[in-house]
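User: Let's play a game. I give you a shape written as tokens, and you guess the letters that built it. Ready? Here's round one.
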């Protein structure tokens, strides 16, 4: 599963619950890729509820391979299409 640009808006109660359920079903059995420009340390604010945030982050961060990129966005250098 790929969550691209995850967390653009804070999660509501239903979204938090659904995300936790999906991650619990996948934990240890399936891969999950998340792309985000926000550092992991700020994800609790996007998730909202501290209890859900801890549970979700535990499933995402434990055994994760993290790739943190730095530098300018490549999209800024692309020519704009008219």
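Assistant: Ready! My guess for every position:
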């Amino acid at each position: 599963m790929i969550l691209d640009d995850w967390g653009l808006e804070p999660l509501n109660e239903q979204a938090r619950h659904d995300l936790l359920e999906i991650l619990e079903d996948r934990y240890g059995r399936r891969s999950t890729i998340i792309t985000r420009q926000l550092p992991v340390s700020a994800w609790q604010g996007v998730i909202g509820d501290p209890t859900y945030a801890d549970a979700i982050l535990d499933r995402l961060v434990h055994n994760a391979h993290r790739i943190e990129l730095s530098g300018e966005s490549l999209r800024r250098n692309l020519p704009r299409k008219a």
